[in-house]
Amino acid sequence: MRTMRVVDLNNYIKRVTDSDPILSDVCVQGEISNISKSKTGHIYFSLKDEESVVRCAIWASVARNLRYELKDGMNVIVQGNVNLYVKGGYYSVNIYGLEIEGEGSLAAAFEAMKEKLKMQGLFDYQYKKRIPEFPSNLAIITSEHGAALKDILEIIKQRNNFVNIMIFPVIVQGDGAAADIARTIALVNEEFEYFDTILLSRGGGSMEDLWAFNEEILAHAIFSSKIPIISAVGHEVDVTISDMVADLRATTPTNGAALAVPDISEIMNHVYDMRERAKRAVSAIVDRDRQTLEYWKARLNGLNPRKIIERGYGALLDENRDFISSVEKLNVGDLFSIMMQDGEIEVEIKKIKKVSEA
Questions:
Q1: pLDDT interval class at 315 (50, 70, 90)
Q2: Could you tell me the end-to-end alpha-carbon distance of the chain, in angstroms, rounded to an integer?
């Protein structure tokens, strides 16, 4: 029998495991324990059941696309290949696929991500930016081949032809979609900061189809955008993480278009109504002021000396044509005039009799 070195034995076993078709693609069910993450992004943990345990590794390239926040105690089904680590003399499962055990794994991942981002404050109302009522420039981030874009453009054309539109095509489904959309949002903010609003949209689909809009990288991109974002993803019943982080959620792509731009015809009708109300208000003010002027005119006419004279009275005028209101201003021998309705009388004072002497 030939004596082998340890490394020779481990290399032999590795060749055996690498050539075994079963071990090259295995599915293993178990509970996660002792999970850790390296600075480079690799994830390590043990997968155990009631009787045994196996080491597992998820390389950073795979870990970046995980839909789940992995935790100790989580029951999962992993897919990978068995690999012997020659130097350490142990084997592990190198994972390239992972699902939470049982039905509703996507729903569970969604709830876990929602709770995580909620704790980080990404859904807080205080951070929501106001959507401009009258935008001049609108950025549309969506698939250039999707039906959603056609519907959006049709709605905008019907409502408002005065808005400048720029379309930024992105991948909206599958691996890399979330990262592509996140990069595009950053691009619009950095190089097209003059845009008033971003409309992020895609048509309906299954939860799997819409998953890019539930990923953390996209949630942070939306939250970091300085330009207000409307999220218009899927149908009315579909609610994504993007909807929750965005400044405004639209129930459908067409609803998003309606929320992004005002309807010119509605604005014109509103302006017409305002004009009519203003005309009625001005007319009411003029009528009220006319009535006020008529009232003051009547009062002034009542105080007009000529009106008093017409009732049979006379007005006394001195030589300067000033009204005489008291005998204290007169002396015997003075001349004054009495103005009457149809002429004046010149009079010389012969005697002055004061009231106290009457």
A1: confident
A2: 165
